UniProtKB/TrEMBL annotation:
UniProt subcellular location: Secreted
GO molecular function, one term: lipid binding
Gene name of this polypeptide: BPIFB3
Protein name as catalogued: BPI fold-containing family B member 3
Alphabetized Pfam families for the sequence: LBP_BPI_CETP (PF01273), LBP_BPI_CETP_C (PF02886)
PANTHER family in the record: BPI FOLD-CONTAINING FAMILY B MEMBER 3, BPI FOLD-CONTAINING FAMILY B MEMBER 4-RELATED
Family membership: Belongs to the BPI/LBP/Plunc superfamily. BPI/LBP family.
Role played: May have the capacity to recognize and bind specific classes of odorants. May act as a carrier molecule, transporting odorants across the mucus layer to access receptor sites. May serve as a primary defense mechanism by recognizing and removing potentially harmful odorants or pathogenic microorganisms from the mucosa or clearing excess odorant from mucus to enable new odorant stimuli to be received.
Length: 473
């Protein structure tokens, strides 16, 4: 198992992001290094990570000052050392750890270099008695690899950690110059064991955040979309790239396998200090496919649903297409049964998104307490403009009917020109069907959660076969 993990990490180290055509249908996320630094900094704030470091550095007869430690026995503070009394520096504790200043460097093909610059406050008893207070600047340097967990989530793995001791300041007490050397050696020996766990705990928090990328995003009662990594994470000088696959599941948890058309996306360049999510056409088509298979695009339109200024009677129909009524008397109410038997077609072009819904519309006459009578059937294509707006978790959709085109598929009387009904049908659908559609498409197009990046304020750009969300870091 471990061999497989290291093999994945090795392979990851050989590849870096590239510009050009995105051949897969996955969602592409690019996390700017500024966002990664911000997330690391936030993981250290308000939690127990730094508090866990506070505690004893030295104690009598154990560890560094024990009989076999650096400062005990024949060591610097033992017999023959600078001082013969081990207890002179006993009880030295870390009582304060300044919130580290994070600096981060992405290393293509290698990993991530993370530096934490902090100040350690120490307190104990001085060699001449009395209180001893001092502070030491410390740079914690770590090398972190980026891989993929067995669950398909990105994961940060600590590969190497070391500390570099900087300036030591004495605030109270007396510490002879020779003992400064002893103290420096002691801190150089003990601080990696004390501070490197901070990095490990920090990565644990980060991995929890990255793990949310693999999540089930509900599509209300219709089902859900599960995001997983499609490939190993890639890295450049400025950002980490995640190719995220979307798995659609029904409300019962079954995978819905929609066709994945080959629609390459010309990936736009990313500006420095920005993060991006590139949402593919496939995800739009998938959501509308789920809506269609669940019957959320179907509707029965009755006179009660239509505004009074839009007639829904055989009397009005006789004015437009009298041949369609045959011997049916006027004055009867109409019922429109709209059914969508095929998945809609979504088109993403430069600056414009459209949805084409192939619909079958059965027009029937109805009388109170009677069985509706079929008059004719229309095969229509509804072309709708889609307005897109980003939120923190999804792309919001708002549809408006652009045009309607169709033909008469069958008639109980005579075949007629369907274009004669176009204006009337447009009014009916705009008044009743489009509002119902907009309620159902409130499920939106789900977005993967990437660290704590909030795309609600992002700049949205519709390109060929994809939508690009860009947010400043």
């Amino acid at each position: 198992m471990m061999l497989g993990v290291w093999a994945l990490l090795f392979l990851w180290g050989l590849v870096t992001p590239c510009e050009g055509l995105l051949e897969t249908v996955g969602t592409l996320a690019r996390i700017d290094k500024d966002e990664l630094s911000k997330a690391i900094q936030n993981s250290l704030v308000g939690g127990p990570i730094l508090q866990n470091v506070l505690g004893t550095v030295t104690s009598v007869n154990q560890g560094l000052v024990g009989s076999k430690g650096l400062l005990g026995g024949g060591g610097l503070l033992g017999s023959g050392g600078i001082f013969s009394v081990v207890e002179e520096l006993s009880g030295l504790k870390i009582e304060e750890l300044t919130l580290p200043e994070v600096s981060l460097k992405l290393l293509p093909g290698l990993g991530v270099q993370v530096n934490l610059l902090t100040k350690v406050g120490l307190r104990g008893s001085g060699p001449l008695g009395g209180l001893l207070q001092l502070a030491a600047e410390v740079n914690v340097s770590s090398r972190v690899a980026l891989g993929m967990s067995s669950r398909g989530t990105p994961i940060l793995i600590l590969k190497r950690c070391s500390t570099l001791l900087g300036h030591i300041s004495l605030f109270s007490g007396l510490l002879p110059a020779p003992l400064f050397t002893v103290l420096e050696q002691m801190l150089c020996k003990v601080l990696p064991d004390l501070l490197c766990p901070v990095v490990d705990s920090m990565l644990g928090v980060m991995n929890e955040l990255l793990g949310v990328t693999l999540s089930l995003v509900p599509l209300r009662a219709l089902g859900s979309v599960e995001f997983t990594l499609a490939t190993l994470p890639l890295i450049s000088n400025q950002y980490i790239e995640l190719n995220i696959n979307s798995i659609v599941k029904s409300a019962t948890g079954d995978i819905i396998d929609f066709p994945k058309p080959h629609v390459p996306v010309k990936v736009p360049p990313k500006q420095d200090h920005t993060s991006q999510v590139i949402v593919p056409l496939y995800l739009f088509s998938t959501v509308f496919g789920v809506l269609q298979t669940n019957g959320a695009l179907d509707i029965d339109i009755t006179p009660e649903l239509v505004p009074k200024n839009i007639p829904l009677t055989t009397t009005y129909l006789a004015v437009l297409v009298p041949e369609a009524l045959g011997k049916l008397p006027p004055g009867q109410q109409l019922l429109l049964s709209l059914r969508v038997k095929e998945a809609p077609t979504v088109t993403l072009q430069k600056k414009k998104a459209t949805v084409s819904i192939p619909a079958t519309i059965h027009v029937l006459s109805s009388v109170p307490q009677g069985t509706p009578t079929a008059l004719f059937q229309l095969d229509e294509v509804l072309t709708l403009n889609a307005q897109l707006a980003p939120s923190a978790t999804k792309l919001r959709l708002s549809l408006s009917l652009e045009r309607l085109s169709g033909k008469v598929a069958s008639s109980s009387a005579h075949i007629f020109d369907a274009s004669l009904l176009e204006e009337w049908l447009n009014k009916v659908l705009r008044a009743v069907y489009v509002p119902k559609l907009n309620v159902n498409v409130e499920v939106g197009i789900p977005l993967p959660k990437i660290l704590n990046v909030n795309f609600s304020t992002s700049v949205l750009d519709i390109i060929e076969n994809a939508v690009v969300l860009t947010v400043a870091s």
